[in-house]
């Protein structure tokens, strides 16, 4: 079981999981980013009653390991609504990415220099205008680099979904090993597939970081 | 209120699992952090090949999921004649992962110490090794405790992955109780609460510590 033909089959089988891995990463990142916007806005509110639920959401979601979330959603809620592994994983990963991204967005909003807000107010902009035209565009710049590197972390986190049976890269590697494929080869191939995606992604995130450092002065 | 009675019954099992989770965290930190410092030193070594190899090592381990490393070690090691317990497998796999991640923090700390410090040390007649170990390193290590504590919280959370190869830490304990009672939800939620309380509390402590360091 170590001939070239076997290794190329191994490549093909494990490679079929690549699409699922990428879909999980992209969907949970994008939907998470959409949810993160209102959460971050609430989190930076001056009213305690608005801020507290957002803080609690971020802290609790990030305080529980990814695997525990996936087990709660897949097995725990399984008694109430039975979900397939993939939707369960998507819900869990989206929940987690929304909390992490909300925290990045919050840091972005809070790190825009107060002078900017004061200047906008002095120019007579309404508070909605101050936020959307002055604060938000600069906050996005500050939040971008950590969010890009979070995408890499999220990609790696999707591997945990294999434990609840999502047919991603590592799931197929494990399945082939159970069928008698050599474990060292199978998991090296699996690791290689993750690197194919994660290395360019982390170079991209560093590129974003450099670009933005040239553009804004982070206080 | 039946679920509260159940929780009281399950709590000792979960706390026992928590003990294993914390022990894993300690072992991983004990090996992973020194490894991270070593990798940081190698990645700025004067010899090019050493630098290239250590940076490649760091990039690879930062680029692949921890679970892949764990499975590689768990299923792959016996194939190459290396038989260790599941607990040891987790410690090895996780330490490699933590070493790669924490090396960036150590490296940033070392590079942050200004060239002026190095020059001052060498103009005082200190040998390069003395300049490094007595002047640069102590200053570099002053910047790392905050980020390393955050890593520790991440490590604690990731010890839940030991579930995948059957080490009896807290997540595994919760899951096996769930599989006996078929009430996965309440026991997993209880475990989740324990994780969340510990992580939120330690994150607060880290934040306070970092604020104090900055002041």
TrEMBL record, chain A:
Keywords: Amino-acid transport, Cell membrane, Membrane, Transmembrane, Transmembrane helix, Transport. Gene3D superfamilies: MetI-like. SUPFAM superfamilies: MetI-like. It is a multi-pass membrane protein. CDD domains: TM_PBP2. PROSITE patterns: ABC_TM1 (PS50928). It is found in: Cell membrane. Pfam families: BPD_transp_1. Residues 18-205 form the ABC transmembrane type-1 domain. The chain crosses the membrane at residues 18-42, 54-77, 83-102, 154-174, 180-204. Belongs to the binding-protein-dependent transport system permease family. This is Amino acid ABC transporter permease.
From TrEMBL, chain B:
Its main location: membrane. The chain crosses the membrane at residues 20-45, 52-74, 80-101, 148-167, 187-207. The keyword Nuclease does not apply. The keyword Nucleus does not apply. Residues 18-206 form the ABC transmembrane type-1 domain. It comes from the Bacteria. It is a multi-pass membrane protein. It is found in: Cell membrane. Keywords: Amino-acid transport, Cell membrane, Membrane, Transmembrane, Transmembrane helix, Transport. InterPro entries: AA_ABC_transptr_permease_3TM, ArtM/GltK/GlnP/TcyL/YhdX-like, MetI-like, MetI-like_sf. Pfam families: BPD_transp_1 (PF00528). NCBIfam families: HEQRo_perm_3TM (TIGR01726). Belongs to the binding-protein-dependent transport system permease family. PANTHER family: L-CYSTINE TRANSPORT SYSTEM PERMEASE PROTEIN TCYL (PTHR30614:SF0), MEMBRANE COMPONENT OF AMINO ACID ABC TRANSPORTER (PTHR30614). This is Amino acid ABC transporter permease. It comes from Prauserella salsuginis.
